[in-house]
């Protein structure tokens, strides 16, 4: 019997993942908002149950949202990738639970996920955990907006959230120390806020999204709508997805 080869053909993403893109580029306000809006739109789509005739899409939690799992298309919109840890919820059956050990990338794990309580394994909590991870990625995009450096200098290194507080590949214990004991979160500097006053509503909802209490966090849809309103208010020419 002859063996068969199977080929999986996917779209070529020229710009690579978001980590690579932000490592090699600073971004304008317009591009930053475009990246953030398209990313939140993608997460909102995953989290939404859609019923249309005979078609059905369940709610999906990703569980490992981070820059290396987000691809950047040539039109500078984001695609969410790597669904190896994803969990589906069919027809509002929220009985699906996560495994007992913590899965995902510690740097982007929410406080409740790090605690690894029984409630954190429930589907509604996992939706809130995705939103927390999303907020950190949005903060990282913001930090690459119009980075100041001389023409003769290299672009400053891309720095992930909590780069000052933890090691390059932090453990669960390291993240528990800064999130649960020290109650730390990333910061928007006063200088950054002065430069980007028009995005104040976006900053506020990002801060809400990393709240320690998952039930207080906005939904991905609400975050997307906030970016939509900012686009209209600032009259930004953003590619719609």
Automatic annotation (TrEMBL):
SUPFAM superfamilies: Protein kinase-like (PK-like). One of its GO terms (cellular component) is receptor complex. Its EC number is 2.7.11.30. The keyword Acetylation does not apply. It is an enzyme of class 2 (transferase). InterPro entries: Kinase-like_dom_sf, Prot_kinase_dom, Ser-Thr/Tyr_kinase_cat_dom, Ser/Thr_kinase_AS, TGFB_receptor. GO terms for biological process: cellular response to growth factor stimulus. Keywords: ATP-binding, Kinase, Membrane, Nucleotide-binding, Receptor, Serine/threonine-protein kinase, Signal, Transferase, Transmembrane, Transmembrane helix. GO terms for molecular function: ATP binding; transmembrane receptor protein serine/threonine kinase activity. It is found in: Membrane. It comes from the Eukaryota. Residues 1-232 form the Protein kinase domain. Pfam families: PK_Tyr_Ser-Thr (PF07714). SMART domains: S_TKc. It is a single-pass type I membrane protein. Belongs to the protein kinase superfamily. TKL Ser/Thr protein kinase family. TGFB receptor subfamily. This is receptor protein serine/threonine kinase. It comes from Panagrolaimus superbus.
